[in-house]
Amino acid sequence: MRKLGKILVTAALAVGAATGANAQTTTYQAQFDQMLGTQERAPQTFEAIYENALEQTIAELADGSKGRIGVAAVDLSTGKTVSVLGDQLFPMASTSKIAVAATFLEGVEKGKWSLTSEFPLLLPRRSAKFSSPRAPVYEGQYMKAIDLIEIMITRSSNPATDALLRVVGGPEAVNDWMRRQGIDEFSIDRDIATLVRDDGEYDPAQHIDPRDAATPKAMLELLTGLYQGKYLSSESRRVLLGAMSRTRTGKRRIPALMPASVKVSHKTGSLNNTSSDVGILETPDGRAVAVAIYVTGQGSRLNREAKIAQIARALHDGYSAQSGQRKRVWTNAEHNGG
């Protein structure tokens, strides 16, 4: 009997504890429902929310229905940024040549070679797509390094790029330089001869290939650091930014719709179904805007270039409107006419 009594008491206590816990839970639920109600709640809106009118304008221009479009920009006098797919990888194409030049110029600063050192152009031999890990090349005319940089940037010369890429130690050396600057979402995996020969393996409008790719934000970080003097000496910056200010390619891209008073220093890129342009916009009032625009698809190269021009002009106008009558602010280290 005593055992039976203990069992009954224990059971009663357990039921009481459970009842108390349930009552407490019910009380909490009642308080919650009293404060917030019991009806199901849907989001107030399914529309995208933008921080400002400029961000909305760029997002609308960078509509991806006809191919991925990546944009990153920053007003260097205010630090205000705009980004659309800024963290997504895009084919760099020839925009990577800025990093190749920067890596070589660091070698000049360290005394490994000079701007008057001469190196041969590396010209591609005819070979079938994907027939070898590296496309065959042969040495051509020897040129001074300063001239190789000039035609690599202003005319987007591939043989000049591969010449300097071989000097610095190949793609790995450029990637290492970028990592040392704290820029991770950037990778050169092939020389230009191989990249061009094997172009077309994937459609960049629909597929993300991590090889020879960077995010718009990574390229923006490179441009910003170069312009502000974080990575190279003033002389090296003068060489690189000066060449970018004399770029002959991409007249239908960033420069196309810019006011005549805006100085554009930029580098273009083109591969199968992708066009790009990255650079610095300098305005008469001393402001500078760094921009990186990568456009895929859109039906044709002309359409991609028109899209780049529209986005670049919208960025210029939007940042100008935001600046208002702010006091003139210089945002770059001195580079003496670069």
TrEMBL record:
<dbReference type="InterPro" id="IPR012338">
    <property type="entry name" value="Beta-lactam/transpept-like"/>
</dbReference>
<protein>
    <recommendedName>
        <fullName>Beta-lactamase</fullName>
        <ecNumber>3.5.2.6</ecNumber>
    </recommendedName>
</protein>
<dbReference type="InterPro" id="IPR045155">
    <property type="entry name" value="Beta-lactam_cat"/>
</dbReference>
<feature type="domain" description="Beta-lactamase class A catalytic">
    <location>
        <begin position="70"/>
        <end position="295"/>
    </location>
</feature>
<keyword id="KW-0732">Signal</keyword>
<dbReference type="GO" id="GO:0046677">
    <property type="term" value="P:response to antibiotic"/>
</dbReference>
<keyword id="KW-0378">Hydrolase</keyword>
<comment type="similarity">
    <text>Belongs to the class-A beta-lactamase family.</text>
</comment>
<dbReference type="GO" id="GO:0008800">
    <property type="term" value="F:beta-lactamase activity"/>
</dbReference>
<keyword id="KW-0046">Antibiotic resistance</keyword>
<dbReference type="GO" id="GO:0030655">
    <property type="term" value="P:beta-lactam antibiotic catabolic process"/>
</dbReference>
<feature type="signal peptide">
    <location>
        <begin position="1"/>
        <end position="23"/>
    </location>
</feature>
<dbReference type="Pfam" id="PF13354">
    <property type="entry name" value="Beta-lactamase2"/>
</dbReference>
<dbReference type="InterPro" id="IPR000871">
    <property type="entry name" value="Beta-lactam_class-A"/>
</dbReference>
<dbReference type="InterPro" id="IPR023650">
    <property type="entry name" value="Beta-lactam_class-A_AS"/>
</dbReference>
